[in-house]
């Protein structure tokens, strides 16, 4: 079990990690941040809308199951958004330098963090 600060610090141990935060997507409020790479507060608010839209679309399409993660690929960055299964309305957001990161390892690490996160 990990608290927010421990979880965020673990994410920053990944090769290429630039910044991370844990967000309440219903309000867009950030519960904790670390690092940078982008304005994490602004990114949290914007990505809250992304998560809400995907949840609504899945509901409209009657798609069963939960979102595991979402990947946004930019020219020089990777952005991973992972809704938390144990904490409704929260997601983990990780920004990676694309040239230094290993996407598979990063996704596994975010999954691991999400499974042991205690709020």
TrEMBL record:
It comes from the Bacteria. This is Roadblock/LAMTOR2 domain-containing protein.
């Amino acid at each position: 079990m990990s608290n927010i600060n421990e979880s965020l610090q673990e994410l920053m141990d990944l090769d290429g990690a630039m910044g991370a935060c844990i967000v309440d997507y219903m309000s867009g409020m950030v519960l904790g941040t670390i690092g940078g790479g982008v304005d994490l507060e602004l990114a949290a608010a914007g990505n809250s809308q992304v998560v809400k839209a995907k949840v609504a679309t899945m509901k409209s399409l009657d798609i069963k199951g939960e979102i595991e993660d979402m990947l946004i690929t930019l020219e020089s960055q990777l952005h991973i958004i992972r809704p938390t299964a144990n904490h409704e309305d929260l997601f983990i957001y990780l920004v990676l330098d694309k040239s230094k990161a290993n996407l598979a390892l990063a996704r596994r690490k975010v999954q691991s963090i999400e499974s042991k996160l205690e709020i």
